[in-house]
Specification:
This protein is mostly beta strands and about 325 residues long. The chain is built from one helix and 27 strands. Strands 10-11-12-13-14-15-16 form a seven-stranded antiparallel sheet, with no helix packed on it. A hairpin with a 4-residue loop joins strand 21 and strand 22. The longest helix is centred in the first third of the chain and has 13 residues. The protein is globular, with a radius of gyration of 21 Å. It starts with a helix and ends with a strand. The relative contact order is 0.15.
Length: about 325
């Protein structure tokens, strides 16, 4: 019965609603440009990596959210923190250099080239160091945290996992197995000050783990597990029972209360944008894009008013204003 319910829900969620209207949108870049754009913190522009022959030199460029002149924002290619306060440059060895943009001051962390996860204030980071050989599911991963300009300290050891997000300045969201030979992973929170740990869910694996902007909720997908566990789930990070959302597709948080989802459409056609209100439990169809998103490349502006996406039609970045 559970499998049938999941199947029916998935099929229903993939059907384009009859009342869906095409949302007005416009390209902000041309010349098949550019995958991987990210929003500036003030939601006024998009940043992207580009270079010759389209630009005079390689760098991080900016285009206004409503379209317009492209300007170079950073001449140095690096990973920039969400608030654009830090540049992160992995080195050829263990060390990654983190540079504060306001004064150029730097410090290093031995991340082995791995990503760093910034806390909301960007005063603290987390990163993982994993064994470099062996089955991923059995590799030992050690999780570290560090205050900026401070020394790192190990806070957890997991197998086949790592940190997903900071929920607050003290609490990390992680997943992974407790032992190399175990079957299930745990999705859990960890207070890095006190060591207090809370398990939210156990499953074979967690995909597309996405914490809400306020850190109070998390969305995740479970697949290839039992029928009772598979599905798209919403759960409070404080604990409690998860809520299954009868849908399947690509999702992003619009704000702390609303989630946007593009349902999987095996039959093709324009992608439809739906919205879920976590306070009411209601789905709303906002409209279709008149297009498809290429390679799942879409994002919501930090203020929740716009969506950018890489067009499957022309390979350019388009922006639409959300109703």
């Amino acid at each position: 019965m559970k499998a049938r319910t999941l199947l029916v829900a998935a099929v229903l969620s993939t059907l384009p609603p009859a009342q869906a209207a095409t949302l007005p949108s416009a390209p902000v870049l041309s010349g098949t440009c550019c995958p991987g754009t990210v929003w500036t913190p003030d939601s006024r522009a998009l940043l992207f990596l580009d270079g010759p022959p389209a630009r005079a030199s390689t760098g991080i460029y900016s285009v206004p959210a409503g379209g317009g002149a492209v300007t170079r924002r950073f001449s140095s290619v690096a990973f920039y923190s969400p608030r654009l306060r830090w540049a992160v440059r992995p080195g050829s060895g263990d060390a990654t250099t983190l540079q504060r943009l306001s004064d150029g001051r730097t410090f290093t962390l031995p991340t082995r080239g791995g990503d760093v996860v910034w806390s909301p204030s960007e005063a603290r980071v987390a990163y993982a160091r994993s064994d470099t050989t062996g089955n991923f599911d059995r590799r030992t991963t050690r999780v570290y945290v560090a205050d900026v300009f401070g020394a790192p300290r190990q806070v957890a050891t997991v197998y086949g996992g790592g940190p997903s997000a900071w929920l607050s300045e003290q609490t990390l969201l992680l997943s992974g197995k407790a032992s190399a030979g175990g079957r299930d992973r745990e999705l859990f929170t960890l207070n890095v000050q006190t060591g207090a740990r809370k398990t939210l869910r156990s499953a074979l694996g967690f995909r597309s783990v996405a914490a809400s902007p306020d850190g109070k909720r998390v969305m995740y997908t479970v697949a290839f597990d039992s029928a009772a566990r598979n599905g798209l789930w919403l759960q409070d990070t404080a604990g409690g029972a998860p809520r299954e959302l009868q849908a399947f597709g690509s999702y992003r948080w619009r704000d702390a209360r609303r989630v946007l989802l593009i349902p999987l459409q095996p039959g093709g056609g324009p992608h439809v944008l739906r919205q879920y209100d976590v306070s009411t439990g209601a789905w709303t169809t906002l409209g279709d894009l008149g297009d498809q998103v290429r390679q799942g490349d879409w994002s919501v502006s930090p203020d929740g008013t716009r969506v950018s996406y890489l067009s499957a039609k022309d390979g350019n970045v388009w922006v639409l204003r959300l109703p």
